[in-house]
Amino acid sequence: MKIKIEPSHLKLGMYVSELDRPWTESPFIFQGFELRTVEEIEDIQEICQYVYVNTEKSAKSVHAQLKNIHKSPQSKTNKKNKTNKKNKTDDTTKTKHSGISKSSTKVEHDVINKDIHKASITRNKTRAYVDDMLAEARMGKIIDTKTAKSLVAKMANNIIENTDASMWLTNLKKRDEYTAIHSVNVCVLSLTFGRALGLNKEQLNELGLGALLHDLGKMHTPLEILNKPGKLTDDEFEIMKTHPVQGYQTLEASSDLSPDVLDIVKSHHERLSGNGYPAGLKEKEIKYFTKIVSITDVYDAVTSDRVYHDGMTPHQALKNLYEWAPGNFDLKLIQEFIRTIGIYPVGSLVELKTGHIGVVIKLNKQQRLKPILIMIMNRHKEYYAKRKLVNLASSIWDTKENKPEINRIIDAKEYDIDVTSIIQEESIAS
Ligand SMILES: [Fe+2]
């Protein structure tokens, strides 16, 4: 049975099956989900006047409350006397100025820049290490896993201290340096995800190390196959498919890595239905850490520009991962990953209701629909000479009529925006 209720009556454990608008017009990726955090309830309260809750799919702990709500008249009331938030916000688009300049806080910007600067030092060192490591692997030399371990530990510490700064830097992608950048990014994404899953430091170090080394075997894949601008032939794909085992053999021979780390390298292309490679393992045969990296690997791959395709927006990539999950990825892990990366992932381009465009630089954990943005374009889609920071959750907006609010996520291609350059400039500015 589904019950129509006001968002103020939502409780953790309730399964929201419908909103008061199509899911595609909401920022939510799941089309129906059980409420697991207070932030999710707040997100719904932010945008909806009412929602429908599916009683069968809700947790048993809320069944009694749902029964009471169903019996009470509130579930049937209309909200004539309520302020129509949507209309109100639409009106704000007609106001003359956005108030953006007023929200710029230098101190906040400085703090964010300091965190990004710190994360970029470790990232650059790791990047340089990966370049050396890949060159050594190509020459058949022994891999220096000791340095890898200490770099991963530093990255894990940075992420524990400040996830967003490290995540921001994962958007620094270059078409022609894919494998090295991808290795570092999959490491950062896996550490971020692992932390959200509650892994301890030791476990994070193992997971991060496997993620950093996962594609080492690609150093034995011919460049014309790795960078082929088009679909691989069957023969070429067979060669490509050897990289997990080649990476595994290189590392197994040269080091003191744990079985979990080696398994990530060997099995990150295995899929739950047994359709993956190299061994065609099934769901229960794939290790937990390997399942995590199989998700972060695909997420980074599809959001990256490659020789043969342009990357998807982070938001679109999360939607696709959710659709691809059956038979491929652990659905629970995918759901957790989506919750971790967020509704407006760091590095996303968003358009405000006023028409201004900004890049998400930091999330607000308590108000996930209101991240901190670096504003890059005005309402006429002209670049700002000097970019400003806007915290959509700032209390300075409470008394203003013209609060800046996100209208939608946009694709960089829509206005030909070079996100990598913007992120690079902002990171150097620090
Ligand atoms: Fe791979």
Overview of this structure, please?
With 430 residues, the chain is an alpha+beta fold. Strand 5 and strand 6 form a beta hairpin. The longest helix has 33 residues. The protein is globular. About 7% of the residues have low confidence. It binds fe (ii) ion. Fe (ii) ion (FE2) binds next to loops.
Low-confidence stretches: 76-104
Strand order of the biggest β-sheet = 8-7-6-5-9
Q: How much helix, percentage-wise, in residues?
A: 40-55%
Globally, the shape reads: globular
CA distance, first residue to last residue:
54 Å
Number-wise, the strands total 9
Cα gyration radius (Å) = 23 Å
Order of helices and strands: EEEHEHHHHHHHHHHHHHHEEEEEH
Counting helices, strands and paired strands, the structural category is: alpha+beta
What is the number of helices? 16
> Hey, roughly how much beta strand do the residues contain?
5-15%
Largest sheet: 5 strands, antiparallel
Mean pLDDT: 85
SSE arrangement:
Elements lengths: L1 E4 L9 E5 L13 E2 L3 H10 L3 E4 L8 H9 L13 H8 L13 H33 L6 H17 L1 H7 L8 H19 L4 H13 L9 H4 L7 H7 L2 H12 L4 H9 L20 H16 L10 H11 L6 H11 L7 E4 L4 E6 L9 E6 L5 E9 L14 E5 L8 H11 L1
Antiparallel strand pairs: 1-4, 2-3, 2-4, 5-6, 5-9, 6-7, 7-8
Helix pairs in contact: 4-5, 4-6, 4-7, 4-16, 5-6, 5-7, 5-8, 6-7, 7-8, 7-13, 8-12, 11-12, 12-13, 13-14
The structure holds fe (ii) ion.
